[in-house]
Every structure is written in C-alpha cells, then in structure tokens.
Write a structure and sequence with these properties.
globular, Rossmann fold, five-stranded parallel β-sheet, single chain, alpha/beta, 2 domains
C-alpha cells in the first residue's frame, strides 16, 4: 500500500469534517465527490447551494454539507466569535460580518475555530497568503510552537532512497529566508510531521551546497548554526548537516563525503536553506521524477489548515484532505 493509500485508510478509521471554501472551483467539487465516494472525510462546501450544484454536473455531492454564509443560522455566533478573537485589533461586528459573508476562507477558518469543522483545505484559486492569513489571525499557533511553516510530502516512484521513496521537503511553501533559529524550528516540526504521517522514524538532513565544510560562505554558516541549534533543541531526533543533497540521501555518497555519520545517505526529511531552494526542489522532483507532491501542508497552526498549489489536480486535493484529516486526528 502506497503512502497516500495508507493516509486515506487512517482517515477512514477516524472520520473528520473538512471544510472546502473554494466550491466555485470545479477541481474542488471533483475532489469532494471523490472524498465522499471513498469515505475519507465528511465534507462541508461553502457557498450558494444553487451555484455549487450548477457547477457539479455529473458529480454526486448528496452527502456533502453545503453552507451559505449569508443564510446560515450560525452567522451571528460566528460574528461574535470573530469579534472576540480579533478584539485587540479593533474588529467590529460590521467588519466581522463583511469578512464572513464575502471571504469564504475567513468563514471556513471560523468554522474550524468554533469546532464545527476539524480542518480546512484551500489554495486551488487563492494564494498561500490568502489561505494562511485568516488561519494565523483566528486559530493562531499551536501551543509550544515558535514558527508556522510548511512542507510537501514527496512520493517518488521506483525510488530506493528516503523511506521507500517518501520524503518531506521543508520549507517549500511559506518561510522565505529563515534564520538559523527558524531553520532549526522548521527541522523539529518537520520531523514530527514525518513521524505522524508515515509512522516511520524521521532522519533529518539540513541541506546546503556544502557538506561538512567543503565550501565556505555565509549561507553555509547559517545551515551549520541551524544544525547546532536543532541538535540542542531536539536531541532525540536523528539530525545532522550541513549536507549536499546527494550526501543526504545516497548511501554511497554519504559514506564518502561524511564518513562515520549515521545520518548521511539515509535522510527522509530534507530541510532546505530557503524558500527558493525548497520550492525549486519540490517542483523539479515532481515534474522530472514524476513524483506525487502533497502540499504545501502547514505545521504549527493550532488546528490543521492546509494550502494547495494553484496548479493542483482534484486528486491532489483529495490527498491533502486525507492528510488534513489525519493531522486533525492527532490533536
């Protein structure tokens, strides 16, 4: 059974309710149809029911819950909740109503905050910033979390590296240029996410264009410092760096470039030095190696809200819904 099939099976065993606020998008409706048909999660679609059903020609959404923010009897309670959460920013009831009825992402996140949904998936037609802004404002960060970051689960076919071809690439979608402390926090969160989703031991490599001092540059120094901090913060995680990519995942190269290391050549969690590297890396792997790419999945928010690439397919959305449900089950 492949990675995403295992995730779907785990989601079926503990059905969660996931809200999809982009019901004007055909891919989202196709994904909702598939999720419901496969029994992966309960689905809430946000929007006008007539418009949604008109866009769902040929799809079975009979088991979906469709909520129109302008007609729900819970609108006032959501207004009150949003005002309370954002009172320090001067949120008024009028402003809250405007947000909830006009911006369905805010409505979806407020549903999660209220406990009427367990998680949200968005991003097929919205930017990462649009998806995460209401999440950070309303749900805020999880207890003990210093930084919200993101990752992609990469499943590479016919690959002997990583966990039978399964990796986490982080951060590949959110934190632009993390400093050493932030990079260390991303490493710690990503290790926990890998263990949750794969049920396998994370082996974390802090990536660079240098392996153990083979190059000298401030960019290398950042990764070296991040590795030091991460080892101090997370002594129980198998983690090391700085490594070039081949030294991190290819056993023979790891043994040559970092002899004696129990991390080199065995990594399944790859921590990129900045967003440029992470984003380029995941897209290269997805397109050239024909890998499955699920994400960007967020980590560090109090309840799971996950982003999508705007180039996603309906099957990609199904996969992220399943991952979101598994994340919600762990809370």
């Amino acid at each position: 059974m492949g990675f995403i099939d295992e995730i779907k099976e785990r989601a079926r065993q503990n059905m969660k309710t996931i809200v999809l606020p982009e019901a004007s998008d055909r891919r989202t409706l196709e994904a909702a149809h598939k999720v419901l048909a496969e029994g992966i999660a309960h689905i809430i679609l946000v929007g006008n029911k007539e418009e949604i059903m008109n866009g769902a020609d040929g799809l079975d959404l009979s088991k979906a819950t469709i909520i129109d923010p302008n007609q729900t009897d819970k609108l006032q309670s959501y207004i009150d909740l949003l005002v309370e959460v954002r009172k320090s920013k001067g949120m008024t009831p009028e402003q809250a109503k405007e947000l909830l009825t006009k911006d369905y992402l805010y409505f979806g996140v407020t549903m999660v905050k209220a406990g009427d949904a367990d998680g949200m998936v968005s991003g097929a037609i919205h930017s990462t910033a649009d998806t995460l802004r209401p999440s950070l404002q309303i749900l805020k960060t999880a207890p003990g979390t210093k930084l919200v970051s993101s990752f992609f689960v990469m499943v590479v076919p016919n690959c002997e590296f990583g966990a039978n071809g399964t990796f986490i690439f982080s951060d590949a979608g959110l934190v632009q240029n993390p400093n050493p402390e932030e990079l260390a926090a991303i490493a710690g969160s990503s290790a926990k996410s890998f263990e949750l989703l794969t049920r396998k031991e994370p082996v974390v490599a802090m990536l660079s264009h240098s392996t153990k001092g083979s190059a000298a540059h401030p960019d290398v120094d950042k990764v070296v410092e991040a590795t030091k901090i991460a080892k101090e913060l997370y002594p129980n995680i198998k983690l090391d760096g700085e490594y070039q990519l081949d030294a991190a995942i290819v056993p023979s190269v790891g043994a040559s470039k970092a002899p004696g290391s129990d991390i080199a050549g065995k990594a399944n969690v790859l921590i990129f030095p900045d967003l440029d590297a992470g984003n380029i890396g995941y897209k290269l792997t997805q397109r050239l190696a024909k890998a499955e790419a699920y994400g960007p999945v967020t980590q560090g928010i109090a309840k799971p809200v996950n982003d999508l690439s705007r180039g996603c397919s309906a099957d990609d959305i199904v996969g992220v819904v399943a991952i979101t449900a598994v994340q919600a089950s762990a809370l």
